[in-house]
From TrEMBL:
Name of the protein: DYW domain-containing protein
GO biological process, one term: RNA modification
Keywords noted in UniProt: Repeat
Family: Belongs to the PPR family. PCMP-H subfamily.
PPR repeats mapped onto the chain: 167-202, 270-304, 305-339
One function term, GO molecular function aspect: zinc ion binding
This protein's record includes keyword Repeat: yes
InterPro entries in UniProt: DYW_dom, E_motif, PPR_At4g14850-like_plant, PPR_rpt, TPR-like_helical_dom_sf
PROSITE patterns: PPR (PS51375)
Domain DYW intervals: 484-576
Amino acid sequence: MASLDSLLQKCTSLTSIKQLQAHLLTSGKFQFYPSLTTILLERCALSPVANLPYATALFRHLQNPSTNQWNAVVRGLAQSLQPTQAIAWYKTMSQASQKIDALTCSFALKACARALAFSEAMQIHSQIVQFGFGADVLLRTTLLDVYAKVGDLGFAQKVFDEMGQRDIACWNALISGLAQGNRPTEAIALFQRMSEEEGLKPNEVTVLGALSACSQLGALKRGEKIHAYIMDEKLDMHVIVCNAVIDMYAKCGFEDKAYWVFENMKCGKNLITWNTMIMAFAMHGNGDKALELFGQMDKSEVCPDAVSYLAALCACNHAGLVADGVRLFNSMAGHGVAPNVKHYGTVVDLLGRAGRIQEAYEIINSMPMFPDVVLWQTLLGASKTYRNVEMAELASRKLIELGSKGCGDFVLLSNVYAAHERWDDVGRVREAMKKRDVKKIPGFGYIEVEGVIHKFVNGDQSHTNWREIYAKLDEIMFRIKAYGYAAKTNNVLHDIGEEEKENALSYPCEKLAVAFGLISTNEGTPIQVIKNLRICEDCHVVIKLISKVYNREIIVRDRARFHRFKEGLCSCRDYW
DNA sequence: CTAGGGTTAG
């Protein structure tokens, strides 16, 4: 037995496993060693030598499979590329329910999380209660996590609330669930409740969720506090934590602080560390530093992967380093990294912004995979910037073929026509939008003032001080007009749907946030705003003027990058 | 006839 055990240890490839199994079968010992069979099963079912068809075939040879043997297969399938298979096996298994234990449920739930199978998760949930595993804290945590991952945070919260005793993992699961489910404010609130009210000590997993929420909100003050805690508690010995800190500083607008952490890490850097930092420089338009780091990485022991290339390409794109970007893109295949849709998208954007519209179009045509909506949107955007009506129409046609309902696509096409004063065509686009029930993604922005996050949506009147904010904005517009500002109306598609308020256009969220920042922070303090969409051209002009007239540094993070406005200029050099 | 299950950065 012991010798078989050690033999099994050496079976690192599937062939050797098969050989061992053949030996057991031919010597007639196979069915007398159920535990060995289980280990064999697990070896076949789980990575790194996973071969699930083989594992399931092996399983079918068993006369009366034990719970453990069932579990091995369910677990393996749950981690495989077909998690729905695990759910199917679980269902079969539940027909003989005495076989199911808490682990089976745990694996099946994991499968639901990966397959985004909400109703299956609910079914398993009710069976968990039926089978009497309802009090199992580990299972409940998994359940909570699954609900969060399949997008039902209400259910996740409910599971959490109903738990008698909660250990740190329960809190962590909900905090990261909220952070990953686009509810960063609630994630931070829960983090605070956990540490301040319940007196629980955040661990390395807790801070990851909290930092991610700070990154989303651009909540620098809160992020710094968490960083201080991390240092005090020596949680910075975990690479994963350092990576999250770097990302937080970068997304809160401080590439230098991010870089400081990067350089002073006591633990070793991994691939993600490098990628995070390169992405940080990219977001800040610091193409040279990004490329320098990419070069260093190439020399270090970590090998750039697809994300590294994407980050470096983004850096070239934001910094207008067209030649470098093209060179990098062309070098990918030679380094064994196949470009994916995102790489193609970035290069198309890079060429398009540089006015090389035809080349961008050719890149799309040369793609080995199906060009998605984003590619055509990018080309449409470039065509608009360079007033290339033919290409804009071509791209729009593609978008319509692909069934786009994005407001932006229609607006861009309309803008191209408007720029050429083709008003009939503008009207046609507007009609098409009405017919297609085009949805506009609501824009919103955040600003942190004295550690409190304020959220604004376009045309927002929900803030307690909204009258004051609107008055400030009116004052701003009045003052900057003296510097030659004139609203660019031909770029704005008016009356999109009747219910669209005039306000939404005159009082966009980023302007409101900046106005609020001017009122509520001291002179000389930089103002930081986070926006969920890309900044619009008009706001860009206005904020540049504000930075000059009010002598304030204003930092805006939009969906893709940072804009640092100072003395009437922007760090993106109007290239974004 | 053992242990194996929960939260985790780009």
